[in-house]
Design a protein that fits this description.
Blueprint: E1 11-12, E2 23-24, E3 39-46, E4 72-76
Antiparallel strand pairs: 1-2, 3-4
Length: 79
């Protein structure tokens, strides 16, 4: 779905529908066009682990004991 090899989104939902991509991009970074030159595109990351917990379960889906989605992080240069 996104520019990431894995995970391809921040939220996973397995529904029995005719068409369901399973992975969704619910979490987003929205910035104005004036801020776009300060946005570091390569810094955008979907976080799947942190120092105190694995945010991913054994199936590589969000660990629902912690959250139903993966958080994201990015950098914006100081001007």
């Amino acid at each position: 779905m996104g520019d990431f090899s894995y995970p391809p989104g921040t939220y996973y939902l397995n529904e029995a529908k005719l068409y369901s991509p399973l992975w969704y991009l619910l979490d987003q970074v929205i910035i104005s066009k004036d801020m776009l030159p300060l946005f570091k595109k390569d810094s955008l990351k979907i976080i799947t682990t942190c120092s105190y917990a694995d945010l991913m379960d054994s199936r590589q889906h969000p660990n629902k004991k912690i959250s139903d989605h993966f958080p994201i992080v990015c950098e914006i240069e100081e001007h």
